[in-house]
Amino acid sequence: MADTLEFNEIYQEVKGSMNDGRLRLSRQGVIFKNSKTGKVDNIQASELAEGVWRRVALGHGLKLLTKNGHVYKYDGFRESEFDKLSDFFKAHYCLELAEKDLCVKGWNWGTVRFGGQLLSFDIGEQPVFEIPLSNVSQCTTGKNEVTLEFHQNDDAEVSLMEVRFYVPPTQEDGVDPVEAFAQNVLSKADVIQATGDAICIFRELQCLTPRGRYDIRIYPTFLHLHGKTFDYKIPYTTVLRLFLLPHKDQRQMFFVISLDPPIKQGQTRYHFLILLFSKDEDISLTLNMNEEEVEKRFEGRLTKNMSGSLYEMVSRVMKALVNRKITVPGNFQGHSGAQCITCSYKASSGLLYPLERGFIYVHKPPVHIRFDEISFVNFARGTTTTRSFDFEIETKQGTQYTFSSIEREEYGKLFDFVNAKKLNIKNRGLKEGMKQSYDEYADSDEDQHDAYLERMKEEGKIREENANDSSDGSGEETDESFNPGEEDDDVAEEFDSNASASSSSGDGDSDRDDKKPAKKAKIVKDRKPRKKQPESKKGKDPNAPKRPMSAYMLWLNASREKIKSDHPGISITDLSKKAGELWKAMSKEKKEEWDRKAEDARRDYEKAMKEYSKSDSHRGERSKKKKKKQEKQVKGKGDKKGAASKSSSSKSLAKGMSDSFKSKEFVSSDESSSAESKKEDSEDEGAASPPPSSEDSASGSD
């Protein structure tokens, strides 16, 4: 048998919500890692007291009970995995994995049993439902009635807030069953009561999130933030991580407390508590406990009287009470020597700290990203200036974070850090078809290498090559399609003059053409045909019916004000994202209601379009007739213009022929006729005259 069993996509039930993660069973115990928060629950094999296999909503589930009363529930197993789990429990934990089915009779009376931190409502021997008492926030009693109130769960869409139990009176003297019921609940419930004195108090601490100055009272089981407007009670069990981060100016310190679940202020949720301290501020602290109690409880981590910097005292006390390590920046150093990078996130400037196992951004809004949830990172060119760049992070869940306006000098340090942590870099390699690889940049003499810039250069070269290929092809087509006979009159006259200059005639016109340099023929390139512009752009008729909206747009218009009221100050883009999430999470029945409304709107639109098209048909016929009439008029004018141009070209051609060519009959005629023709030529030098017609030339030859 294998020593370990691993299951992916297992859901742990915590405070009514299902958190997905990975479950691993080994000889040493059971380990569950939450995919969302990275929190690890470790149950030692020696602590396991009972294992129960049962059918649940998500398939089959495993309930583990420990000897100290804790209950762990894991759902998402398949029925075929029961035998494998049962054999593993027998071999390594010496436990029998019992099968228990829930009662589904629907009865509302039964027996309440308290076992550890679990309240079980049973009918006979079968449980109907179970309530973890750690979820109870308040327990009140009435006549024969007990009311349990629960903590609000922000991760669940619908959460249970209250349950009432009717307790029938009994005949036993001296024992009130209602009070006994309430005491059993309160002994295990997570009810925060500020009873007794605080261990210590820190006055007027500057808090960035939530903003304001608060007195922090340290109690044995919870932290009390007391401000002018709001009070917060934070159980130490909700503290996930502690961070101590130096400011870039080296004069201040951030102390960050990560919370899960977050604290609430109206509709706002604060997942991080950020305190800002000055390094120069000192304090002398005395704990409200005697020395023996301090030594017994904290085992040397704290003393009754302590003094030092304020941020050191706060972090030291929190570390001892929460029993978690404090995360500090690792060996990363930026260009300026600081352990952080100045950047912007969501239009707010802040500081990005590369840690040993993740990134954290402070402070508005605070963001913590672990390396194990990062899919890849990307270095992108800044959109506004070349002196900065953007650092993009995308998680495995598809969430993208963009830290912009990072100084170019920080690129080398940040790239080396990301490369050393073996994170996937999206733009490390070049696109397909490019022979260069990123490794070639390592031997360059430059101090900093921009993979994004090099990729853009390569893409530019490819575009230039494609452009040259297309221009060469178009040049060949131009040579083939070039035809001077089809050009306009000016080009034709130039070619006529060249032809007369090369002829062997000895008249005055040809001599002048020989003295002047010959004009080069215009080469007209065959341009690409332009898109045919419509003769008259059809304007939109204001009387035409409007197109119907989709089901989503109808729902968005009806719900926009409600979303704005639920999220005051939300931007347009965030409102669109939130609306998309709400629409995606909406049930099928609600979507069908909006689909029906969209279908009705579409039918109304089609009906209106039919009526509109009928009323518009008469106007359309008149416009068509008018358009045809205009086309005929334009065509007639074009024919006249073409005939005139043909006659003018024939006349100029005849003139050239008469000047440069003399027939045999004209040469052999008598001297008188030749003298008359010379006299006419000399008279016509100053004034232009039309060329002789064919009849005149015929009579002259006669």
TrEMBL record:
Compositional bias per record (Basic and acidic residues), positions renumbered to this chain: 532-544, 586-620, 631-642
Gene: Ssrp1
Pfam families: HMG_box (PF00505), PH1_SSRP1-like (PF21103), POB3_N (PF17292), Rttp106-like_middle (PF08512), SSrecog (PF03531), SSRP1_C (PF21092)
Main function: Component of the FACT complex, a general chromatin factor that acts to reorganize nucleosomes. The FACT complex is involved in multiple processes that require DNA as a template such as mRNA elongation, DNA replication and DNA repair. During transcription elongation the FACT complex acts as a histone chaperone that both destabilizes and restores nucleosomal structure.
InterPro entries: HMG_box_dom, HMG_box_dom_sf, PH-like_dom_sf, RTT106/SPT16-like_middle_dom, RTT106/SSRP1_HistChap/FACT, SSRP1-like_PH1, SSRP1/POB3, SSRP1/POB3_N
Molecular function in Gene Ontology: DNA binding; histone binding; nucleosome binding
Composition-biased stretches (Basic residues): 517-531, 621-630
GO biological process: DNA repair; DNA replication; regulation of chromatin organization
Protein name: FACT complex subunit SSRP1
Subcellular location: Nucleus, Nucleolus; Nucleus; Chromosome
GO terms for cellular component: FACT complex; nucleolus
Residues annotated to bind DNA: 545-613
Compositionally skewed regions (Low complexity) per UniProt: 497-507, 644-660
SMART domains registered for this protein in UniProt: HMG, Rtt106
Domain (HMG box) ranges: 545-613
Organism: Myiagra hebetior
UniProt keywords, alphabetically: Chromosome, DNA damage, DNA repair, DNA replication, DNA-binding, Nucleus, Transcription, Transcription regulation
Record keyword Transcription regulation present: yes
Family under the similarity heading: Belongs to the SSRP1 family.
Region spans: Disordered: 458-551, 586-702
Record field: compositional bias (Acidic residues): 474-496
Gene3D superfamilies per UniProt: 2.30.29.150, High mobility group box domain, Pleckstrin-homology domain (PH domain)/Phosphotyrosine-binding domain (PTB), Structure-specific recognition protein (SSRP1)
